[in-house]
């Protein structure tokens, strides 16, 4: 991975560095996206398809199905999910003032996971008519509802008299995550073999289920969160000095916390609903970027979106070719890619003096 | 003007401040002194609008509790007793935060001037976590200064609220920082500083508010507050003003000259 430049320039302002990184990451994302369209179980020539398109000819049926119906929605889903997870990680780390925070921590992922597992295991108990209409929507909707339920519950628990305690939010998220995990365990215990297979795939995350319908349902939420995130940047920078100092500078701290949490709930709820539990992207991406271009959230959030999207596409590509024609769950790939990077960062970093 | 009338602040179930009435004027350096736990920080935080209170706190005529945060931030900047930085920003990035939240936002960059002011020329590119405690404290002061850079704007004074601004500094930098506060007041701004060092206080303050156990014991110019009986009561030990200790060396900060800035 390209670590751009660790030393700040002479003025101590790393914004130009961050902007150059944005350009580089944008190019990288476009290249990865193009590559990702060409990779997969079916052989399709992207250049032929492009030539056809440019010449105004219709695509042949095979190319249309593979590129348009399968790979393109999958590509866009991957971009949005990767960006959403990475940006959520960066926002949460800023909010908790802790570089180790992760979307998994605030209970969104756990709540969404519980929702999805409930839908998979108990979905069969629904009246057949309802089950037929809900159909493929049941799991994503349950995941999204579970994620939001967890966040709202946490927020209510952590807020007293107009003040939200970030520490309660963090610890409550861990507790709620453990609780959701336990209930999920019971449900997994009740599951039959088919459901177990679904559960495993869902739990480790996958973009295999991506489709235009699912994308259209979840993309607006992720896009909304991604567009809203940059407006948090200035506030998160101030929050790095602590809540008191940020308030002294005139920052509406409580509003910032509320907006940050809603943004993350939108982004992660939708991401988990469409792709299951994909770990490490939210943790590693902001971390790498902070090392390369500094912690200023104005550059960090934009760059996190780009790098998160790129990394998820890479991971998805790997998951598709490694054991082709079968597919590995993408969460396994992100964990295998992310965990060593994360460990390397931890070990390389000088321990803070006490 | 900062007018505090009949102030009571409760923290938890304790009344930490009771019946405080005092006035601090722009153009003056007002020191808040008193033993540990006497409520100095609490008084300053209440004046910042951090705490719920009973009574009255008016800054430039506006009741602090009901003034919106951005409006307060345009009028006064606060240096807290300690500030922890969550991420490794550079010194320049930290200082710029102050300006970007103050009335000088969008104007010419004050970073270099503010850093020079606190004696940290050329420190801009350094990483904040890699500085010493005293250097970090001065970076924070530079940030605070850029938030309310002009002591007076359109005839309205601005304010610096400083909580123990020199507690982790060596003697030269103590003098330098106190001189910055002094200059700010001389230029027409208001300065309220929580002080531990009574010698420095005597040297730089126009007025001293002496706190003990949450109450105001005395308020007035140094000569009238730094008296044996008052200090003895406040600090609970026998103190003699301007009497050198019977044995051993001692240092008077008055004997030093402020280094050229
Ligand atoms: N959050 C709190 N809850 C209860 N008591 C507090 C709290 N914060 C401070 N105190 C108490 O209030 C008193 C004044 O504290 P403070 O204003 O920080 O003193 P200092 O004069 O040393 O700055 C102390 O006795 C302290 O123990
Ligand atoms: Mg104190």
UniProtKB/TrEMBL annotation, chain A:
<dbReference type="InterPro" id="IPR000522">
    <property type="entry name" value="ABC_transptr_permease_BtuC"/>
</dbReference>
<feature type="transmembrane region" description="Helical">
    <location>
        <begin position="300"/>
        <end position="322"/>
    </location>
</feature>
<feature type="transmembrane region" description="Helical">
    <location>
        <begin position="169"/>
        <end position="191"/>
    </location>
</feature>
<feature type="transmembrane region" description="Helical">
    <location>
        <begin position="104"/>
        <end position="125"/>
    </location>
</feature>
<keyword id="KW-1003">Cell membrane</keyword>
<dbReference type="GO" id="GO:0033214">
    <property type="term" value="P:siderophore-iron import into cell"/>
</dbReference>
<keyword id="KW-1133">Transmembrane helix</keyword>
<keyword id="KW-0813">Transport</keyword>
<comment type="similarity">
    <text>Belongs to the binding-protein-dependent transport system permease family. FecCD subfamily.</text>
</comment>
<protein>
    <submittedName>
        <fullName>Iron complex transport system permease protein</fullName>
    </submittedName>
</protein>
<dbReference type="InterPro" id="IPR037294">
    <property type="entry name" value="ABC_BtuC-like"/>
</dbReference>
<keyword id="KW-0472">Membrane</keyword>
<feature type="transmembrane region" description="Helical">
    <location>
        <begin position="211"/>
        <end position="229"/>
    </location>
</feature>
<keyword id="KW-0812">Transmembrane</keyword>
<dbReference type="Pfam" id="PF01032">
    <property type="entry name" value="FecCD"/>
</dbReference>
<feature type="transmembrane region" description="Helical">
    <location>
        <begin position="137"/>
        <end position="157"/>
    </location>
</feature>
<dbReference type="GO" id="GO:0022857">
    <property type="term" value="F:transmembrane transporter activity"/>
</dbReference>
<feature type="transmembrane region" description="Helical">
    <location>
        <begin position="259"/>
        <end position="288"/>
    </location>
</feature>
<feature type="transmembrane region" description="Helical">
    <location>
        <begin position="328"/>
        <end position="347"/>
    </location>
</feature>
<dbReference type="GO" id="GO:0005886">
    <property type="term" value="C:plasma membrane"/>
</dbReference>
<feature type="transmembrane region" description="Helical">
    <location>
        <begin position="75"/>
        <end position="92"/>
    </location>
</feature>
From TrEMBL, chain B:
<keyword id="KW-0813">Transport</keyword>
<dbReference type="GO" id="GO:0016887">
    <property type="term" value="F:ATP hydrolysis activity"/>
</dbReference>
<dbReference type="GO" id="GO:0005524">
    <property type="term" value="F:ATP binding"/>
</dbReference>
<feature type="domain" description="ABC transporter">
    <location>
        <begin position="2"/>
        <end position="238"/>
    </location>
</feature>
<dbReference type="InterPro" id="IPR003593">
    <property type="entry name" value="AAA+_ATPase"/>
</dbReference>
<dbReference type="InterPro" id="IPR003439">
    <property type="entry name" value="ABC_transporter-like_ATP-bd"/>
</dbReference>
<comment type="function">
    <text>Part of the ABC transporter complex HmuTUV involved in hemin import. Responsible for energy coupling to the transport system.</text>
</comment>
<dbReference type="InterPro" id="IPR017871">
    <property type="entry name" value="ABC_transporter-like_CS"/>
</dbReference>
<keyword id="KW-1278">Translocase</keyword>
<dbReference type="InterPro" id="IPR027417">
    <property type="entry name" value="P-loop_NTPase"/>
</dbReference>
<keyword id="KW-0547">Nucleotide-binding</keyword>
<dbReference type="Pfam" id="PF00005">
    <property type="entry name" value="ABC_tran"/>
</dbReference>
<protein>
    <submittedName>
        <fullName>Iron complex transport system ATP-binding protein</fullName>
    </submittedName>
</protein>
<keyword id="KW-0067">ATP-binding</keyword>
């Amino acid at each position: 991975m390209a670590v751009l430049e660790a030393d700040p320039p002479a003025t101590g302002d790393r914004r130009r560095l961050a902007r150059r990184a944005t350009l580089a990451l944008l190019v990288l994302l476009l290249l990865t996206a193009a590559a990702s369209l060409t990779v997969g179980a079916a052989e399709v020539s992207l250049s032929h398809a492009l030539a056809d398109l440019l010449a105004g000819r219709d695509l042949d049926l095979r190319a249309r199905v593979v590129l348009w119906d399968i790979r393109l929605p999958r590509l866009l889903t991957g971009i949005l999910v990767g960006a959403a997870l990475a940006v959520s990680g960066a926002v949460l780390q800023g909010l908790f003032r802790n570089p180790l925070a992760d979307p998994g921590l605030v209970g969104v992922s756990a709540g969404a996971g519980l929702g999805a597992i409930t839908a998979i295991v108990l979905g069969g108990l629904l009246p057949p008519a309802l089950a037929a209409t809900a159909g493929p929507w049941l799991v994503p909707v349950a995941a999204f509802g579970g994620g939001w339920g967890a966040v709202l519950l946490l927020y209510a628990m952590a807020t007293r008299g107009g003040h939200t305690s970030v520490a309660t939010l963090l610890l409550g998220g861990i507790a709620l995550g453990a609780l959701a995990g336990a209930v999920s365990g019971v449900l997994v215990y009740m599951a039959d073999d088919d459901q177990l297979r679904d559960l495993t795939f869902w739990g480790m995350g996958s973009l295999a289920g991506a489709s235009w319908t699912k994308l259209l349902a979840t993309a607006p939420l992720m896009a909304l969160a991604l567009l809203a995130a940059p407006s948090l940047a200035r506030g998160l920078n101030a929050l790095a000095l602590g809540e008191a100092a940020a308030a002294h500078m005139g920052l509406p701290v409580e509003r910032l916390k509320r907006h940050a949490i809603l943004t993350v709930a939108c982004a992660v709820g939708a991401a988990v609903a469409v792709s299951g539990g994909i770990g490490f992207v939210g943790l590693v991406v902001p971390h790498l970027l902070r090392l390369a271009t500094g912690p200023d959230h104005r550059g960090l959030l934009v760059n996190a979106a780009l790098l998160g999207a790129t990394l998820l596409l890479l991971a998805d590509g790997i998951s598709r070719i490694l054991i082709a024609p079968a597919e590995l769950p993408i969460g396994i790939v992100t964990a295998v890619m992310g965990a060593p990077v994360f460990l390397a960062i931890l070990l390389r970093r000088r321990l803070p003096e006490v | 003007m900062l007018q505090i009338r009949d102030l009571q602040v409760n923290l938890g179930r304790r009344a930490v401040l009771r019946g405080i009435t005092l006035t601090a004027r722009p153009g003056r350096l007002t020191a808040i002194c008193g033993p540990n736990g006497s409520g100095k920080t609490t008084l300053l935080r209440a004046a910042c609008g951090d705490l719920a209170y009973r009574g009255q706190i008016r800054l430039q005529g506006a009741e602090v509790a009901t003034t919106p945060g951005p409006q307060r931030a345009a009028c006064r900047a606060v240096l807290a007793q300690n500030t922890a930085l969550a991420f490794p920003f550079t010194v320049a990035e930290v200082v710029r935060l102050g300006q970007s939240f103050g009335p000088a936002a969008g104007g010419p960059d004050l970073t270099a001037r503010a850093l020079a002011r606190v004696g940290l020329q050329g420190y801009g590119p350094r990483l904040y976590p890699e500085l010493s405690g005293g250097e970090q404290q001065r970076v924070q002061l530079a940030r605070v200064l850029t938030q309310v850079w002009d002591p007076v704007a359109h005839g309205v004074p601005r304010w610096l609220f400083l909580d123990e601004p020199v507690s982790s500094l060596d003697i030269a930098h103590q003098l330098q920082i106190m001189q910055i506060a002094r200059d700010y007041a001389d230029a027409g701004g208001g300065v309220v500083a929580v002080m531990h060092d009574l010698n420095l206080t005597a040297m730089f303050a126009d007025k001293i508010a002496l706190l003990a156990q949450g109450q105001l014991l005395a308020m007035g110019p140094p000569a009238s507050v730094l008296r044996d009986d008052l200090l003895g009561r406040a600090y609970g030990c026998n103190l003699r003003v301007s009497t050198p200790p019977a044995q051993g060396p001692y240092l008077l900060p008055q004997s030093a000259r402020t280094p050229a800035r």
